[in-house]
Structure formats: C-alpha cells, structure tokens
Amino acid sequence: MKTLLKAQRLQNVRYEVRGKLAEEADKLEAEGEKILKLNIGNPASFGFSAPNEVLDYMKSRIDFSQGYSEAYGIRAAREAILNYSSGKGISGIELNDIYTGNGASELIQISLDALLNSGDEILIPSPDYPLWTAAATMAGGKVVHYICDEQLDWFPDLKDIEDKITARTKAIVIINPNNPTGAIYPRSILEGIVNIARKHNLIIFSDEIYDRLLLDEDEHISIASLAPDLLCITLNGLSKSHMLCGFRIGWMVISGAKKEASDYIAGIDMITDMRLCSNVPGQAVIPAALSGKFRAEEYFTPDGRVNAQRETVYTMLNSIPGVSAVKPKAAFYIFPKLDKKKFNISDDNRFALDLLREKKIFIVPGSGFNWHEPDHFRIVYLPDPETLADGMNRLADFLDGYRQ
Predict the structure, then answer these.
(1) pLDDT tens for each residue of 210-265
(2) Torsion sign, CA atoms 328, 330, 334, 337
C-alpha cells in the first residue's frame, strides 16, 4: 500500500499540552513511575468535583436528551446564556446570537473555519492557548503573534498590536482571563484594544472561559460590553467554573455589527448545521449551572484551596535561584521564567523532557504556548498545596546545577 501522509495544512499545527511529552509521560507511567502531571487544567484529576445540584439536574434530564437538539442548542440553555451575557453588559444580543458547542474549543474552530481564507491574517497573543494558533492555521489563516508584556503583568502590548496590523488582518484574539499567565486585563487595556479594532475594522474574538475564576478583587470585564459597534465573538463555558471538563459544555455569543457580518454568520450557521448539534445532556445542565451559585467560588476565596495552591507555587518558584514568576490573578496557571544565562537553555522542549525523566514532573514548555524564547514554562497549580510543595522542591533540586 502506498505510504499515506497527513494533510499539508497540519504541517505547522502544534498542540503540546497533549503531544510528544505526553507520550513520554505515558511511557514512564507504563513502566511504573508516578508522574506529577502539571501540564493540563483538568480539575477532576485533582479531586475537584462538579456541584451535586448540577449533576442531579442532568440526571433528571437524561430521558429528555436522547434526540438531536436544534443546531444552535436547546432553547432553555440559550436563554440562560443570553441572560448571563446580558448581565456581563453585552448589549443588543438575541437568542439566535447564542450557539452551544462541545466545549468552547469546537466553537473556536467553527468560527475560524467560517472566517479565514488562505493568507488572511489574525492577531493572536504570545503566549497563547495553543488551540487558537492551531485552529487558525488549520483554517488556512496566517497567525501573527502579538506580545503580552511580562513586565506589565502580562498585559497585551498595544503598540505591538498596532504595528503588526496589515491590509490582510481580519481579527484580533484576546484570552481574558489569560491562559497560560493568569492575567486579568484592566479596562484601559481592553479599551485600547477596542480602539485599535475600531480603527482597523477588525473582528474581536474574546476567550473568557475563566471569567468566574478570579483570585483577588479584580473585576472581569467582557470586552464586547465596551464595543457594541464592533463584531465581537465571545466564548465561554462550564468546563472550569463548574469542574465539568468531560461534559464538553461551551457557548459562543455574537454581538455588535451583525448586519455587516451577515454572510460570515451564514457561514457559521452552515458549519453549525453540518455538525447537527452539541451534546444535549451537557446543554441541559446550563440553566441549572448559571442560575445557581458558582461552584468555583468556594475554591477561590482568600482561604480557599486554589488560592492556597497559588500562594504555594508562586512563593516557592520565586525562591528558586534563576526562576521568577508574575503572580497570577485568575484561573490556575502560572508562567514562570528561567534565567537563560544561568541555565544556558536553548531548547525548552529538552528542558521539559529532562525534568520529566529525572524528576517525574510533567510541565509544558513556553514554546508550546507560542512564546518566542526558550525561557518559560507553564505549571498547572491544581494539586493540593502539599503535593505542589513537593513538586517545587523537586524542581529546585533539578535546577540546582542544571545547564544545557
């Protein structure tokens, strides 16, 4: 049989959160090693559970969830999303502006597939959540990464954004709260992005999956609430806030200049119809989840578990010679920096592999988030403080004398 090759459009697609390092971790586990997996934000793996009332409600709806729903999603779920989004200040939205998905990930791919032609440019942050770069590349677009500034709490560099806009630029992506840095963007930064998008007639994509997972007193502002005249696509879901990753519950809200984007929206509708619908049992829990107290609140209070885990990892990382980290304000990720001169690191994938093999700690290197230097990595701080402290001690021991 003739050798079969993968599609050319996949040649430059990467997703290192699950990739070659994960394969090595699986191999080590098969050999009997215990791996501390700090690579993926999967709360259920670390003892977090969904609210009982949400699980009970889904069970009560199973008998009514056996058939396809409308392609957009069931009405009750979309009404709950509409009310939630309106409460965030997103104006001018109607029921048909709401789409449910098998996680926000599916809707990211759908919205980019419907938009991008070969060579169209889209601005995506660096570091990013790598699905955005992968999905845009698979859709045929050209990804242009703008810099988030570590010296300014990882906020987007507005000048860098403006400097990278060309006649081919169609859209700008923001991830707020941010993965992998844990940053929350203030109103001034969001207004700056809106002004740039307005000046250059850009679509704004806003990934807000962590908007309910705030660790301090910061306010989360949905950028669509500041741009009622611009086409904005806001993505969200229950995977993290309600510890329901496996249920694959996401949604997308289209707001702003919908009339001018009617043909693009028709493209989204076409792909949405072809997919038939998102999983109906998952959709069924949305009204119950959005009408009740957010499960995550108890974990994110000043004396809550996630806050304690953040303090542990942040303090211990910054005590390791040659390591520094900006304190995250949301979600459960931190993006520490390695002193390149001290460790002589030229290949961050090799660094991650060395750490995995020697200390059995699985992290994702910064290049996996499209960071431009081999000097960062992401840690998921979902394990309990004792486990995290043990991991940070092992990391410190590993870095003591490590050089490439």
Answers:
(1) 999 999 988 999 999 999 999 999 999 999 888 888 888 999 999 999 999 999 99
(2) negative
85 bridge partner residues: none
Sheet with 121-126: strands ordered across: 98-102, 249-255, 232-237, 203-207, 169-175, 121-126, 142-149, 155-156
34-to-88, 172, 302 alpha-carbon distances in Å: 43, 41, 31
Cis bond upstream, residue 125 (ω within 30): no
Give per-residue burial for 375-403: e unless 16+ CB within 10 Å, then b: bbbbbbbbbebebbbebbebbbebbeebe
What is the tens place of the pLDDT at every residue in 137-196?
999 999 999 999 999 999 999 999 999 999 999 999 999 999 999 999 999 999 999 999
Maximum CA pair distance of the chain? 61
Nearest Cα to 347, choosing from 365, 362, 321? 365
Strand partners, 99: 252
What's the chain's length in residues?
Answer: 404
Tokens 């889904």 belong to 58
CA–CA separation, 397 and 395 (whole Å): 5
Residue pointed to by tokens 């910064």: 366
Best CA proximity match to 149, nearest among 158, 137, 138: 158
Q: Which tokens sit at 382? A: 């979902």
